[in-house]
Design brief:
This protein is α+β, with helices and mostly antiparallel strands. It is built from five helices and nine strands; from the N terminus they run αββββαββαααβββ. Strands 1, 2, 3, 4, 5, 6, 7, 8 and 9 form a nine-stranded antiparallel sheet that branches. The protein binds flavin mononucleotide.
Amino acid sequence: MRNSPIEIFEEWFKEELHLTEVRIPTAVCLSTHGTDEFPNARFVSLKEIINDAFIITGPLNSLKGIEIARDNHVALTFWWTETERQIRVQGIARKISEKLADKYFHERDLNSKIVSSICEQGKETKDRKLLEQEMQQRASSKEMVDRPKNWGGYSIDPVRMEFMEFRETRFHDRKLFELENGKWRGKQIQP
Ligand SMILES: Cc1cc2nc3c(=O)[nH]c(=O)nc-3n(C[C@H](O)[C@H](O)[C@H](O)COP(=O)(O)O)c2cc1C
């Protein structure tokens, strides 16, 4: 069995990207430990893998940010429909540097930058129309948008990764990798 789960991830991702026509193939479900003890999950976009860590971005003070600040044990779950594969990752999330946050913010399109700048993600709004007007006004002004101080990202260092190849018969192929003393150990697990 190959012993680098990151290499397997990259190979599988490449194979899916080659086949898929979905608009956001980087979508991944991020699960956190909710402050009310319920698990909490939402989709985010995987930006890239740096030094074997999964990078995601967004506001740092929305619910997920609050939850990660309290408990940085998180999970990422991918389901790729073309290759019919699921990948589960559990790992430790740490904030990325300001420099890296600047890089990712710079890559966003103007609308996304404006939304990050005028909205407080997850807070109640009494008037969505007002926000929409502000959005249009800022978009038509074409003014540069600076990265808000609360916008950044997380680098997630995996400690456990499971690769599953879905099989019509339900006799799925599952391989589990766990980090032990800095080394990945892999084993085949039952469907
Ligand atoms: C396909 C998809 C991709 C998304 N990508 C991101 C992302 O990269 N970062 C982000 O903060 N929210 C992203 N969102 C929005 C999140 O699902 C979520 O609504 C938002 O982050 C607020 O979550 P929170 O209240 O738990 O912090 C995405 C949603 C979808 C459906």
